[in-house]
Specification:
alpha/beta; 9 helices; six-stranded mixed beta sheet; 15 strands
């Protein structure tokens, strides 16, 4: 019986092995495929950038700056007429303004280097050129002169006869950035060892003249333009003032010009002729400085060269036109009668005086 049991057990084992060998292996379930990431949205194409408006367009007018040396209200009104005239001549757009000081004009030119024109005097140009590379284009002419002078004005009945007499005197000057009103007089005082007393920054050439006229200062310095004589032309070395015998006759005529007999007064005293028609009777010229280069029309450093050419031609033609008499060529403005070329080297003498006086843009107001 035991033997039979072993045989049966062996057969069962063999059968189980055979069945296991014949049973197909279980197929493993495939691993799940990774989920595809959601489709990403394409970024929108960049917006096309608009080109900045062209300089001289209505959206980007050319800035025209005038130093506040004479009648500011008249200059502002005249600026509107100049904008229109230059637009008609060139097709370009302009925006004229009168900054609050000479220094502010220079700073504005350097702050906007591609689109600014400045009507600035010799020292203003030298400072602007040093600060940011402003370049000159035109210089004014007045009645045939391409230079002018500084004049020292005193009360006609004062005892002052020479510059040395001004030791300790109260001095009124237009602006610390004025070439004729401040730089040249400062250099002359220094050369002669003169120490003035109180100083008054009057705010313009007319205001400096009024300071002497009203008895608020002993001496004023301002621009001198040569008088027009009945015959011939005034020459450097001639007496700067009107001959004494014509002084009582000084008055403003029907054309709003200041005449003494047949002598026409063109220096800074004429700037207050309307409110003080007796200014020549009360204020006399003590002496003059040496020659000074006339004021300029200058361009900011990166101003387009082709636009410069167009504007120079337009301004030259405008100054030669009758319309200029209402603005730039008027005595209450800059009294230009013509223009001519000017170059950087013409201002080397001015630079020497500035260096000697230690004048920089930073210390103009000190």
């Amino acid at each position: 019986m035991k033997k039979v049991s072993y045989v049966l057990f062996a057969l069962l084992v063999v059968g189980a092995l055979v069945l296991a060998a014949c049973t197909p292996a279980a197929t493993p379930e495939p691993a799940p495929e990774p989920e595809a990431p959601p489709p990403t949205e394409e970024p929108p194409p960049p917006e096309p950038t608009e080109a900045p408006p062209a300089i001289g367009s209505e959206e980007h007018p050319i800035q025209v700056l005038f130093v506040p040396s004479v009648d500011v209200d008249f200059m502002i009104a005249g600026g509107d007429l100049i904008e229109t005239a230059l637009n008609e001549a060139t097709g370009l757009y302009f925006e004229a303004s009168v900054p609050t000081s000479y220094a502010a004009t220079i700073e504005a030119m350097c702050a906007s280097p591609e689109d600014t024109i400045g009507f600035i005097p010799a020292m203003g140009y030298a400072l602007a050129n040093q600060l940011c590379g402003v370049q000159p284009a035109l210089a004014s002419e007045r009645y045939g002169w391409n230079v002018y002078w500084a004049e020292f004005l005193v009360a006609r009945d004062s005892d002052f006869q020479t510059l040395e007499d001004l030791e300790g005197a109260t001095w009124a000057y237009p602006d610390a950035g004025s070439t004729s009103g401040f730089l040249y007089p400062s250099a002359m005082f220094a050369d002669l060892g003169i120490t003035v007393g109180n100083t008054v920054e009057a705010g313009g050439h007319p205001q400096a003249v009024k300071a002497v006229y009203n008895g608020e200062a002993d001496v004023a310095t301002a621009y001198f333009s040569a008088p027009l004589l009945p015959e011939g032309n005034w020459a450097m070395g001639d007496a700067p003032d009107i001959p004494d015998e014509f002084i009582p006759d000084c008055a403003v005529n029907e054309d709003d010009k200041l005449y003494c007999g047949e002598y026409r007064v063109l220096d800074a005293r004429a700037a207050i002729r309307e409110e003080a028609p007796d200014v020549v009777q009360k204020v006399r010229i003590l002496t003059l400085s040496g020659e000074i280069p006339n004021d300029t029309m200058s361009f900011s450093p990166d101003f387009d060269a082709d636009l410069q050419t167009v504007i120079i031609e337009a301004v030259t033609a405008y100054v030669a036109s009758d319309a200029c008499a209402e603005t730039l060529c008027n005595e209450s403005f800059y009294d230009w009668t013509a223009v001519g070329p000017i170059f950087d080297e013409n201002f080397d003498g001015v630079r020497l005086l500035m260096e000697a006086q230690g004048i920089t843009l930073e210390n103009l107001g000190e």
